[in-house]
Amino acid sequence: METTKRVINISGKFGSWTVLEKQGKQVLCKCDCGIQKLVYSHTLTNGRSTNCGCKKRKESIPVGATFGRLTVISDIEVKGKRGELLLLTLCRCGTQKYVSKNSLKRGLTQSCGCLQRDSLKTDKTIHGHCKSHEYNSWLHIKRICYNKNHHQYKYHGRCGIEVDASWRDNFTQFLKDMGLAPEGTVISRIDQESDFAPGNCLWIPRKEHYRQIHVLRRKEFFVSQTLPKAVVTNSEINVSPNIVRAVIKDHANGEANMNKLATQYKISTQDAINIILHHV
């Protein structure tokens, strides 16, 4: 195959790239869409890099488009610190802010931050539940859907589960739809493949919640990630019922480290594993 190696000159064109400056093995280029980026020289000359990626991105968001309290006021996309595309928006409160394009499209960002602040003010002054189980449940479902560092994110947000837009920044609406939680209950979804949304959530006993929703996932996780390969589980547990209940409770509250549970309750790791596998 015949190949022709092109020479990189200032102002030279490589697809949508225009060469601005040479910097060693890299070249500062400007894409036709306006984005500037350092590109390796060989990716220009061999044709692997022809644009900043704008050709593959979905349609742009037009000026004037509204998302909650935000209105897009510029269609120029700017790259953020993590490589995400940002658009300049004007909030209803008068604040201008660069917001992730993807967050706007997915409905994750509805304001400059004033919506949440107003919601918190309303929560504290009107609904009177800012320290309640219902309020903490509302915060919890948002964390497990959007906080990638939360230990339950992989079962929810990573699987595409979200919080309905009518609840996401509005605890009052959440409380109106869900009502007060009976004692000893937690929020759960009826259809485990669908979002936390009105009509798909209910309050169920905590023990039933973890039995129906988390046990199979946790067991799979323990077998594949936590259990030593040499360990063979059995159902014989020589510990007191009080310790069994305590281990189950800690596990239900999110503790997945069997060694830590074993140390805390002065039992063997094997007993801690068996308690979870056979008594939850």
TrEMBL record:
It comes from the Bacteria. This is Uncharacterized protein.
